[in-house]
Write a structure and sequence with these properties.
Blueprint lengths: L3 E6 L5 H15 L3 E5 L5 H11 L8 H25 L3 E5 L2 H11 L4 H12 L6 E6 L2 H7 L8 H23 L4 E5 L4 H14 L5
Parallel strand pairs: 1-3, 1-4, 2-3, 4-5
The structure holds thymidine-5'-diphosphate.
């Protein structure tokens, strides 16, 4: 879908920070870009987000979680994305279907095919024009965080999951290279921001 851009990346890549800088840049330039995020992004979708991310719901079934992400997505599309696109605005969304593909499909092991099918029902033709992937391996992200203790059992589980998620993104990029803008996020915050803006200018989203 033209003018619909998504941003993806693993935990610890600095996605939130980079998106905030980008939003400020657009404000300063007077560009009419709608910034939003998933899960959540609108009233009902935020209510679904709270259920998904509530630590008390650790017993949630993986497939139930996948459906809730898809449900939140449907509502967010209706409330935010579709109205903005139909008014000719550009929408930049922090996480979208690719997060479900890799976190639920690959990380949780539900299977990529199943999660792709589920999301086809949820989003229909509303696939992003292109997707920015902020590329930082979990090894680098953990190191940047100040060095997680690899011997800690919980950190080790976390690490294995994030490794799968990262490999999942790499697989998607391999399958659909033209949809992805891969941005090396291993440098300084300023370097990453510069690369991000350059990619968006080259794609005609920013001036
Ligand atoms: P959030 O606090 O927004 O984290 P981040 O800054 O990393 O985006 O939490 C979102 C979490 O939800 C994040 O761990 C990724 C996960 N997620 C999925 O597992 N599937 C999805 O479809 C989406 C949109 C997010």
């Amino acid at each position: 879908m033209r003018n619909f851009i998504t941003i993806e990346g693993c935990e610890g890549v600095g996605k939130t920070y980079q998106t905030r800088l980008l939003k400020q840049y657009c404000l300063d330039k007077g560009l009419d870009v709608v910034f939003t995020r998933e899960p959540g992004g609108s009233d009902i979708a935020e209510q679904i987000r709270r259920i998904i991310l509530d630590a008390d719901n650790s017993d949630m079934d993986d497939l139930c979680e996948a459906f809730l992400y898809a449900a939140s997505r449907i509502q967010h599309l209706k409330d935010i994305v579709k109205p903005a696109l139909s008014q000719g605005k550009t929408v930049i969304c922090d996480r979208y279907v690719d997060s479900s593909y890799v976190y639920q499909g690959i990380g949780r092991g539900l299977g990529l095919d199943k999660i792709v099918r589920l999301n086809e029902i949820a989003v229909g033709e509303y696939m992003p024009e292109f997707t920015v992937f902020l590329d930082l391996s979990p090894d680098n992200a953990f190191r940047r965080k100040g060095g997680a203790d690899q011997n800690d059992r919980m950190e080790a589980v976390g690490y294995a999951f994030h490794r799968k998620v990262y490999e999942g993104y790499k697989l998607l990029i391999q399958q659909e290279p033209s949809r992805f803008e891969v941005i090396d996020a291993s440098g300084t915050k300023e370097q990453t921001q510069a690369k991000l803006r350059e990619a968006l200018i080259r794609r005609g989203v920013l001036k």
